[in-house]
Amino acid sequence: MRVLSILALAAALGCGGGSARALPPAPQGLTAKPELEAVLLQWSGVPDSISYVVYTSIAVSPIANGKVSFVSATGADSYLLLESGLTSGVAYHFAVSAVNDNGRGPLSAEASATPQ
User: Fold this and answer.
1) Distance between CA atoms of 102 and 15, rounded to whole angstroms?
2) What is the spatial distance between Cα 12 and Cα 101, in angstroms, rounded to a whole number?
3) Is the peptide bond before 62 cis (omega within 30 degrees of 0)?
């Protein structure tokens, strides 16, 4: 498992320089499944990503102003994240962006769920 380094964190926050290599594309297939005071997120991995930034918000737009979580990339075809500590009965909206050595790519399509 790769460890999120200071450089990866800087890239995730959009800081620092980059080379001619492109930013990663948006992750595909984001789903959100409600659980007890939590939501289980799943999405497809993006090749050459070093990490993912997961946005959680109760406001649909702008979702990037919500809570931010970082997930280390492991080269897997898909990723699971249990976003816990959520309030039951409140709709939450999620989006994910992939990070490579050049920075953070665009957001995935949003997925929503209401924890039980």
Assistant:
1) 9
2) 9
3) yes
Specify the pTM.
0.77
Is residue 111 within 8 Å of residue 30, measured between CB atoms? yes
DSSP helix/strand/coil, 67 = strand
- Answer whether 39's CB lies under 8 Å from 75's CB: no
Residues 6+ apart with CB under 8 A from 15: none
Each residue's pLDDT tens digit, 15-73: 555 445 799 999 999 999 999 999 999 999 999 999 999 999 987 766 766 788 888 88
Whole-angstrom distance, CA of residue 68 vs CA of residue 79:
16
